Amino acid sequence: MSAEVGFAVVGLGMGKHHCRAITSAPGARLVAVCDIDRKRLDPTAEEFHCKAYERYADVLADPEVQVVNLATPSGVHAEMGIQAAEAGKHIIVEKPADIVPQRIDDLIAAGQRCHVKIGGIFQSRLNPLNIRIRDAIRAGRLGTVIGAHGHLPWYRTQEYYEGEHGSWKGTWSMDGGGSLMNQGVHTVDLIQWLVGPVESVMGMFGVFGHDIEAEDQTVALLRFQCGALGTLYTTTCCYPGYDQLLTIYGTQGSVMKQEGRLSGWKLQDDPDGTEERQLLEYYGERKGGSGSADPMAVGFDGHTQIVQDMVQALAEDRDPMITLESARHAVEIITAIYESGRTGREVKVGQV
């Protein structure tokens, strides 16, 4: 067998990003792709010169496949992940790890029981600007963080939710929600990764611009364990779709960013603005793609880093850098917001 680690991608919607990431990552080799739709499967296998499987069981039976990348509907992530773990395959699972926290726990337990490594996809954590912001917060440079606010005014057509590959989206059973669970989960994870865990939430949601079962607009208040208060807004109704906005306020400074672009960096320990000017010069232009209007426009460089990290984690026998334990909290926050919207009361995160 080649010294390269063999990967298979299951689900060829967003899975196409995984295919490109694997072929770009040193030490990784795309062995196979899997999809029940031959119109997706055959062209992808031909493009990447790899095996084509319609049946997931055939992927799990392939001895050349060491890692399975799951890019299937969110509601089956844990179920399919457990099957992969029991087949001895390591796993990279797309966001969210699943739509129910307990199912994520079941997948974590399966990984431990079967001695396989499982990594999640939250590529925003790998963005150098986000790392710079997190380092500043952790070093106390913003003072006491008092507010953190995420705004995701995205747009999706009705067609996005229809057809052979869209009908699972915007459903409670397979998507776990709508704009918040599917599109907003990255924003939720980024806020909690930067500021810390969320203690409780209050939320409201509804359907405003689509014919779907779940929601296409959600508003929430967040109470962080550190004492900060925050707000969260997600939608897929905002034509034509605008970039994610993130603002973090502290007693000694504030930071503002728009997607991959820094728009404000005001800290008391940078009184003449030298650092701000340097950062704005470097991070003032967009770094990477945006999915504000087109879900396939999201860049895959972060995925490449995650694939490469899995290769290194296997070589070094360590956990992947984005563990399911750390990816779980975003789903806890989201399910608590939905429960709050249904009941009209403040909900403690982790009690749903």
Summary?
This protein is an alpha/beta fold and 352 residues long. 35% of the residues lie in helices and 23% in strands.
Written overview of the protein:
It is a single chain. With 352 residues, the chain is of the alpha/beta class. The protein folds into 2 domains: 5-123 and 298-323, 3-Layer(aba) Sandwich (Rossmann fold); 127-295 and 332-347, Dihydrodipicolinate Reductase, domain 2. The protein has helices at 15-24, 38-48, 56-61, 77-86, 101-114, 128-138, 179-183, 185-195, 274-283, 301-316, 324-343; strands at 5-10, 28-34, 51-53, 67-70, 90-93, 118-120, 145-153, 198-206, 217-224, 229-235, 245-250, 253-258, 261-267, 347-348. An 8-stranded mixed sheet has the order 13-12-11-7-10-9-8-14. Helix 1 (15-24) crosses helix 10 (301-316), helix 6 packs parallel to helix 8 (185-195) and helix 8 (185-195) crosses helix 11 (324-343). It starts with a strand and ends with a strand.
